[in-house]
Design goal:
Radius of gyration: 34 Å
Oligomer: single chain
Distance between the termini: 64 Å
Strand content: 15-25%
Largest sheet: 5 strands, antiparallel
Length: 341
């Protein structure tokens, strides 16, 4: 978590709120003294409708209403961008919540702010809920039947990804910070947005995956309920090597590694008689995804040192060369000419 960036965003939100309060206060103070400010309420742009005592009445939409709707939109956008940082700091200080839980709460808060802002804008511009319902119904029809050829299908994908993003935030099959495998990509979840989720692989490259794939496709989450993972190291020793001694050395290397768990106990098995080696397998567990690479490297180093000290050779591929002896073999030795300057 970048505390400095969160603090900067919090201070920026406070400055914006103070400036907005000052502007609103000045308007409330001087609006009665300066009649010219009411000119925006006299310029009617169009008429909407409102329900008064069960009857529809015309509602004039003025230039002032348009400006007010614009202020609502800007305010909702500023809050949606800056408010999550304030909540992040408050949750970090006051509550014992995980990073994934804080991310879920701040993201849903941003969505709620945007939804409220959109409703305020539509209400200010004269839109009523019945009209919004008709708009939603029209969008549903266009999505279902692919209205407008490619546009309908594209809109359908956007809505599906948005709904899938909400399911991910509530059901939490993946969380920010989880190590996952999607297709042939391994990485860490860094962002869960409206349309797509960002996964940063071990090379630092970021993969954008549509949210729908996490709901409808297969997903491997390495740290969903428990970050304990198993390491499997395959070692091939040369034929004729003392197998039991080699197995004891592997178990000793695992027990002495501080990152390897004692429970479950590390195990070593004699797996197979290979083409070029006797195959041994070391299985052990670490309690964090972050320790996998360092633990594997340390185990390999310890195994190599112990095998060298015991005189046990690591096998390498061997090949047999068969010569055609039906006729005498011709052997010719050639000397290359010295290079000229």
């Amino acid at each position: 978590m970048d505390i400095a960036a969160l603090s900067d965003e919090t201070r920026e939100l406070i400055r914006i709120l103070v400036l907005t309060a000052a502007i609103v206060g000045l308007y409330l103070i001087w609006s009665g003294a300066l009649p010219a400010l009411h000119i925006f309420d006299d310029l009617i742009l169009w008429h909407g409708t409102e329900i008064v005592d069960g009857a529809e009445q015309p509602l004039p939409i003025t230039l002032g209403s348009l400006g007010q709707a614009l202020l609502y939109a800007v305010g909702a956008w500023v809050l949606a961008v800056r408010l999550p940082s304030v909540l992040e700091i408050l949750l970090l200080q006051r509550f014992q919540m995980t990073a994934a839980g804080r991310y879920t709460l701040t993201t849903l808060t941003a969505y709620l702010v945007v939804a409220v802002g959109l409703l305020l804008v539509l209400s200010t511009l004269g839109a009523r809920w019945s009209q919004v319902q008709w708009l939603a119904a029209a969008l549903s029809v266009s999505i279902g039947f692919g209205f407008g050829f490619g546009f309908g299908f594209g809109l359908q994908e956007i809505v599906a990804n948005f709904i899938s993003g909400l399911i991910i935030l509530f059901e939490r099959p993946i969380r920010v910070g989880d190590a996952v495998t999607v297709g042939d990509t391994d990485g860490v979840v860094t962002k869960i947005k409206i349309r797509a989720t960002t996964i940063r692989n071990w090379d630092g490259k970021e993969l954008l995956v549509p949210n729908k794939e996490f709901i409808t496709g297969r997903l491997l989450n390495w740290s969903l309920s428990d970050q304990t993972t198993r390491l499997v190291l395959a070692i091939g020793i040369a034929y004729g090597s003392p197998v039991r001694q080699a197995m004891d050395l592997l178990a000793e290397a695992a027990r002495e590694n501080p990152n390897v768990l004692d429970d479950p106990t590390p195990t070593v098995i004699f797996e197979t008689f290979g083409d070029n080696a006797l195959g041994l397998l070391l299985r052990c567990f670490v309690d964090s995804i972050d320790l996998r690479v360092s633990a594997i490297s340390a185990l390999n180093e310890a195994i190599n040192d112990r095998f060298n000290a015991a005189g046990i050779g690591i096998a390498f591929p061997q090949r047999d060369l068969h010569l055609d002896t039906v006729k005498p073999l011709r052997v010719q030795i050639e000397h290359s000419a010295p290079a000229t300057q």
